[in-house]
Amino acid sequence: MDINQTITNHSSQPITRQLLKSWLKEYKRPNDKISALKSEGLLTSVKRGIYIAGPKSHAGRPENPLLANHLLGPSYVSVDSALSFYGLIPERVYSITSMTTKASRAFDTPIGLFTYIQLPLPYYAFGINMVWLTNEQYAMIASPEKAICDKIINTSGLTLRSVSNAGNYLLDNLRIDEEILKTLNIQMMREWWIFR
Description:
The protein is α+β, with helices and mostly antiparallel strands. The protein is 37% helix and 21% strand. The chain has 2 domains: 3-57, Arc Repressor Mutant, subunit A; 64-193, no CATH class. The protein has helices spanning 3-9, 17-23, 30-39, 64-71, 79-85, 144-153, 163-173, 178-182, 186-193, and strands at residues 15-16, 43-47, 50-53, 75-77, 96-100, 105-108, 113-118, 128-134, 137-142. A hairpin with a 2-residue loop joins strand 2 and strand 3. Helix 5 runs antiparallel to helix 6.
């Protein structure tokens, strides 16, 4: 097996250490080969046990939302990252924020910063979509409604005492277009709110 070609063929997905070892089963010391592939720039370690094709492989790489799903699971991309993905906020987001049922944490990787915020069940499980990113790449991302709910719940010091207060926050602070807000499923958001 040509390991370089195999890595290139799988460059659109995160590559786990277990998968690498299965590709390197003919090696007596697969960990040494993995280290060599990293040194040669054919693999990049994103987190312990998770790799992507390196810069010398001349291949693509997984999109950040897909990578975020793999760095800590279960998780889904949400808040500003999801709002930006859907084009609901004008700002560009440089780190990926996800929700998880596990403890909150962050990974500062060669690809960028990935932050995870803990949410309780059953609220965590509502409003998650499997979203097509590119050819062969799908990721778990909050629906626009869930991303807004997650943003409100996780904004420190934010207290919304009225509908107009909430509207002002969404329109003025987040700068979400009013016409887009009118298309959201408010009833679904109300149903989730009781579980937060």
